[in-house]
Design brief:
Type Iii Antifreeze Protein Isoform Hplc 12, SH3 type barrels, 2 helices, mainly beta, Thiol Ester Dehydrase, Chain A, 5-stranded mixed beta barrel, 7% helix, 266 residues, single chain
Length: 266
């Protein structure tokens, strides 16, 4: 365990997930017997929230070498405020200790209001490295094409991300969801495809090729699909529904065994 006798940090206010923000200066002691104190301005709020504490701990952990981008969580009672007082409060993070292997930390919070020391509080929790991941700003559907304006970058704990998560914004732009994708969450590679070249309701040229035989007719796409995807198509001559592979814009190839019988009527 690494421990630091006293690291004093400004409490930051922010929305959403809590990650380290770089303070103007943080001095990290070389040994557990050193003491470093940075003066703090008084907070405008009379409450210290869980998010305030997590942000300050993230800054302290970053300054201590735990990582550059960190997600910090507190363990204990589910509450919004860690400390509330009648007058503005300043907070110091003291006795910070963390274990890299387990990703755990503990610290003592020292509070002061108008020059008076208040009752300290011990806190603990977990931390994890974080990554910037592209997510959707709004819910998109299978007929949509993802545009750059649909994407925002969001920091997320690395340990909670699957290996098949899309990690680059460029890999989302121009793609089409294969099914509805909700906003604010990681997108997995199997959930998207190249932008559809055939749209649901489009009239398409249906081709059936077997050896030297090639049959062509018109059909209606019952699904949207990118090049290489398989969609349902209704034969406008027989009204039979078959599966076909999208070859290019408005052209599909009927080739699966289950549709050969149907194609005798093409």
């Amino acid at each position: 365990m690494r421990s630091f006798l006293r690291i004093t940090l400004l409490v930051f206010f922010s929305c959403g997930s809590v990650f380290a923000a770089e303070p103007e200066s943080v001095t990290v002691p070389d040994s557990s017997t050193s003491e470093t104190v940075q003066s703090l301005p008084k907070l405008q709020s009379h409450s210290i929230t869980v998010q305030d504490v997590a942000t300050s701990i993230a800054v302290a952990l970053k300054a201590s070498g735990a990582g550059d981008e960190l997600d910090v969580r507190l363990v204990g009672p589910n509450r919004d405020a860690v400390y509330t007082y009648d007058t503005p409060i300043t907070m110091q993070v003291s006795d910070l200790a963390f274990e890299e292997k387990s990703g755990t930390w503990s610290a003592t919070l020292l509070f002061e209001s108008e020059g008076q020391a208040l009752t300290p509080s011990k806190v603990s929790g977990r931390y994890d490295e974080a990554k910037l991941i592209p997510v959707l700003k709004r819910r998109l559907y299978s007929d949509d094409t993802i545009d750059e304006n649909d994407i925002e970058m969001k920091r997320m704990p690395a340990s909670r991300l699957r290996k098949d998560v899309v990690s680059q914004k460029e890999d989302l732009i121009g793609k089409t969801p294969l099914k509805t994708i909700s906003e604010g969450r990681p997108v997995r590679t199997h959930e998207i495809a190249s932008s559809a070249v055939v749209r649901k309701g489009d009239q398409v040229h249906m081709k059936f090729i077997s050896g030297n035989l090639e049959i062509n007719t018109l059909g209606e796409a019952l699904d949207s699909g990118a090049s290489g995807s398989v969609i349902r198509v209704k034969n406008l001559t027989s009204n039979k529904v078959v599966h076909a592979e999208v070859k290019e814009k408005d052209v599909v190839l009927v080739k699966t065994l289950e549709t050969i019988q149907a194609n005798k009527e093409l």
